[in-house]
Structures are given as C-alpha cells and as structure tokens.
C-alpha cells in the first residue's frame, strides 16, 4: 500500500488523523530517544517506549555500562519519514514508519578517547524502522486544531502546546506523547 492509501485507511476510523502532525512527532521522538540512548537516560526511554522495548533497551544499556562503553549518536538530520503500514489489531492499532536520517554514530570507551567503531566526524546514513502503537478506536481530537488552542473541557486558553493539563479546570489533555508509544525500533 502506498502512503496515501494507508492514510485513507487510518482516516476511515479516525477522521482527524493528521499525517503531518504524526510524522513530526515520529521525527522528534526518534531524536529524543537517540539522545536519551547516548546519555543512558532510562527515564526518557521509559516514557516513550512500551514496556517490552524499554526492558530490552535497559538491559543493553546496562551491559554497555558494565563494559564501560558509550554509544554516541548525535547531530541527526531527518531526510524522509514514510508511513509504510497500518494494522488494526483486536486491542490496538500499529503504525509502521521508516525514518531516513544521517547522523554521527560511534562507540567509545568511557573516559578515554579510544573509538571502538564508527567515526567522530563522518556522517552516516541510516533507515530506522519504527512500530508505533496506540489504543484501538483512539480518536484524534483537539491535537489537530492548533488554531483554537482552547481547553476542550472548559474553553480556557492554552498557552503552550506542551501544557499537560488545563490551568483552570485541571482536565488532562490528550497529547501525542500520552497516546502513542514506540513498540519497536530497528536499524
Ligand atoms: Zn479547562
């Protein structure tokens, strides 16, 4: 299926689904996860990843820590983001996305300049395959309509897109971060 058909399929169930917003979020989250991985920032990984993927990453990072190895990934530039598949499962929906990037990626011995693999200054190209999950029958609601920027419950003005709940009525806003989780991540 080409992307256009996939998006039409998604919109059959979720009319407000925004391809642009979704892709923007995918790109941002990939950058955040890469940075968290380099810094061994488990809290951030836990926030964005489903438990099974998080536990795998935690194990890999702990092994690297034990062996005093750091994987530096930085200066990521995104070239293209493509939605390649979409599946409605009994209890969830799964999106498959390919993100083509270039970045600096190398392995280093802790507290030393020794490079184990990769290059400090040579950019490499990589295609990341992501599976992203959200609850079945989720409906994209206020997320899309940034033009109004008001609380869907009480109508109070929202000052920041990152705001997690309404300052007046305390309603928790549904955001991309609360609705979508990374289920798998491969190169
Ligand atoms: Zn409110």
Automatic annotation (TrEMBL):
Residues 3-134 form the Tim44-like domain. Gene3D superfamilies: 3.10.450.240. It comes from the Bacteria. It comes from Thomasclavelia cocleata. Signal peptide: none annotated. This is Tim44-like domain-containing protein. SUPFAM superfamilies: NTF2-like (SSF54427).
């Amino acid at each position: 299926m080409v992307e256009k058909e996939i998006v039409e399929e998604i919109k059959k169930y979720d009319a407000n689904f925004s391809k642009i917003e979704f892709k923007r979020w995918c790109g941002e989250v990939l950058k955040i996860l890469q940075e968290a991985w380099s810094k061994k920032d488990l809290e951030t990984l836990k926030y964005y990843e489903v438990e099974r993927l998080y536990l795998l990453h935690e194990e890999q990072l702990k092994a690297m820590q034990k062996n005093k190895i750091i994987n530096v990934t930085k200066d990521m530039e995104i070239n293209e983001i493509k939605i390649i598949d979409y599946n409605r499962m009994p209890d969830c929906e799964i999106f498959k996305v390919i993100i083509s990037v270039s970045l600096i990626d190398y392995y280093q011995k802790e507290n030393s300049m020794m490079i184990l693999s990769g290059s400090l200054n040579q950019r490499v190209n990589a295609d990341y395959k992501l599976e992203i999950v959200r609850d079945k029958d989720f409906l994209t609601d206020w997320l899309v309509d940034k033009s109004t920027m008001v609380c869907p419950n009480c109508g109070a003005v929202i000052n920041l897109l990152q705001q997690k709940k309404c300052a007046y009525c305390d309603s928790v806003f549904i955001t991309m971060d609360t609705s979508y989780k990374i289920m798998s991540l491969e190169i």
